Amino acid sequence: EIEHLVGMAWQDRIRPHLLRATAAELKCNPRHVRRIVSSNEFRVRQRQCLFLGLSDGARIDMFRRANNFDLSHEQISQTHELADDRVRKLLDKLQDDLKKIVPETPDDPKFRTIVLLDDFSASGRSYYMPDGDDVSGKIARLHDVLHDERQKLSELVDLSRTDVHIVLYVATESARQHLEEYSAKVWGDSVQSVTVDVVQLLPKSLCLGRDDHGPLADVIDQYYDASIFDEHFEKGNTADARYGFADGGLPLVMHHNTPNNSISLLWSYEDTEVHGLFPRVRRHKSARQ
Fold this sequence. Notes:
alpha/beta; 7 strands; single chain; elongated; 11 helices
C-alpha cells in the first residue's frame, strides 16, 4: 500500500503543481497539458525540482524506481542533510542537464522547487516543534540552514524564487493543519510559496478520543502501562500516553513500526509489563537503556 502511495506522489501531487506553475509562466490554460509538457519551460522547471527525504520512511528508493522515466537520479536525495561536496555535485549536474535543454542557460543555475518527502505524520510536530517563541524540528532546521549564507546548502536555491512543497504519503488532518499553519509562520514571504500535500489523508473521524466512551476505552485503560510515558511524550502536552503522542488516538499500524500517535494498546513496548499487539521499536536510545 505504501509503495502504491509512493508511486502516486509524483504523478498525482507534485507534477500537477509544476504543470500549473509552468502554465502561469507561459500564460496559457493549465488544461492544455500537451502544450505545457512539450515546452522547454516545463522541462527546465521539472529538472529544477529537487527531492529530499525527511527520514528513512521517505522510501526514496521506491520513489526513484517509480519515476525513473521523468526524473534524474541526480535530483533525488535520500536525505535533506547534504554534505558540501554533494551540494556542489547536484548543482554541477543541474547545469549540465539544463544546457542540454536550453544551451544558453546561464552559469550557476539554482533549484526552483524543493520537495520534502516523508511517509507518515500524525501530529506534524517532528517537522515543526513549538518551543516557546522559537520553532524547532526537521523542516524548521532546514529553513534556518537555507537562510544561512555561510552554509553550503543555501547555494542550492534563490529563496525568493523558490517553491517549497511538503509531500507526505500518509498523514492525519491534524498533521496537515499543523504543517500548513507553521509553514506559513516559519517561511513567511521569504520563499515564493510553501505548500503541504498528502497523498492519503486520514480524517479526524478515524481517531479515538478521550471523550469517546465506547467499549474500547475500558480496554485501553485496563492495559495501560504508565512506564511508557517519558520526557519525549511530555512534549505532546498530555498527562499520559494512553491515546498516543499528543493524544493522536490513531488505530493505525504500519509495516515497519507502529506510530506512537496510535493508542498505546497497539504499540506498548516489548520490554514493559504490558505488551502491545504490535510493539513499537523505540527510537530514543536513552529510553532503551
